[in-house]
């Protein structure tokens, strides 16, 4: 289980989250909603170990994680995958989709042949064909690029997948495809999934339980 306990975040003097707690268990899909600017993305970034809270703890299976980003041991960091709203903001425009998917594998210094094989496997999981893998982001659609970002998020087979409005800018068919790929991954790996979305229909269809950010704080921000 991944848990945020008593998370408080401030940007300068602006306190965005105040003592917020939530948990996502392996195998479940939790939906997180709340008004724009309430701090959903901020909470997701804290859970993804990308943002250090002023107070509070993120833990996995009861073990508190100290530090963020590369200060977290790879074996812990790779248990969490993240998918953001805008694949264009999340992708290096100089990389081919194959290199984009390979990024986390190269960071882990896996042998070249292992990386090549794993990229092919991951591309297959998200339905990207070989002709798309050699293209750079400017030459593919948002949906195709988001699929590459999803493959990248799956690279180390994370136990938890955090999705921040990950299908918002996509058409209905691509949205359904991404949701189906994530659900399939979740079932195969018993992954816990957290989805932030403004789309009530998607939330109802996808999440096992829905949480309102405003209800999670010990004290209202
Ligand atoms: N890096 C930052 N520096 C300063 N303020 C920030 C920063 N990131 C977010 N904020 C502010 O923190 C508040 C919460 O932002 P956040 O993106 O977490 O909300 P959200 O609930 O995800 O909103 P939305 O639904 O519109 O995406 C907002 O008022 C935002 O302006």
UniProtKB/TrEMBL annotation:
GO biological process: transmembrane transport
Coiled coil segments of this chain: none
GO molecular function: ATP binding; ATP hydrolysis activity
SMART domains: AAA (SM00382)
UniProt keyword annotations, A-Z: ATP-binding, Nucleotide-binding, Transport
ABC transporter domain mapped to chain residues: 2-221
Listed SUPFAM superfamilies: P-loop containing nucleoside triphosphate hydrolases
Matches recorded under InterPro entries: AAA+_ATPase, ABC_transp_ATP-bind, ABC_transporter-like_ATP-bd, P-loop_NTPase
Gene3D superfamilies xref list: P-loop containing nucleotide triphosphate hydrolases
Family named by the database record: Belongs to the ABC transporter superfamily.
Protein's recorded name: Peptide/nickel transport system ATP-binding protein
Species name: Pseudosporangium ferrugineum
């Amino acid at each position: 289980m991944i848990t945020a306990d008593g998370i408080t975040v401030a940007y300068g003097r602006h306190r965005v989250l105040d003592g917020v707690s939530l948990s996502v268990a392996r195998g479940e899909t939790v939906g997180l909603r709340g008004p724009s600017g309430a701090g959903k993305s901020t909470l997701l970034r804290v859970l993804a170990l990308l943002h250090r809270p002023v107070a509070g703890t993120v833990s996995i299976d009861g073990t508190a994680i100290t530090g963020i980003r590369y200060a977290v041991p790879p074996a812990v960091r790779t248990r969490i995958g993240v998918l953001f709203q805008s694949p264009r903001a999340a992708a290096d425009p100089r990389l081919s989709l194959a290199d984009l998917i390979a990024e986390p594998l190269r960071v882990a210094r896996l042998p070249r042949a292992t990386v090549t094989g794993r990229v092919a496997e991951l591309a297959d999981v998200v339905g990207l064909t070989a002709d798309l893998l050699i293209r750079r982001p400017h030459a593919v659609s948002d949906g195709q690029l988001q699929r590459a970002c999803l493959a990248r998020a799956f690279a180390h087979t994370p136990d938890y997948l955090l999705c921040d409005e990950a299908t918002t800018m996509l058409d209905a068919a691509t949205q359904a495809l991404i949701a189906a790929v994530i659900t399939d991954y979740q079932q195969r790996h018993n992954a816990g999934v957290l989805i932030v979305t403004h789309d009530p229909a998607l939330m109802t269809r996808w999440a096992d339980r829905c949480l309102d950010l405003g209800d999670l704080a010990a004290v209202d921000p």
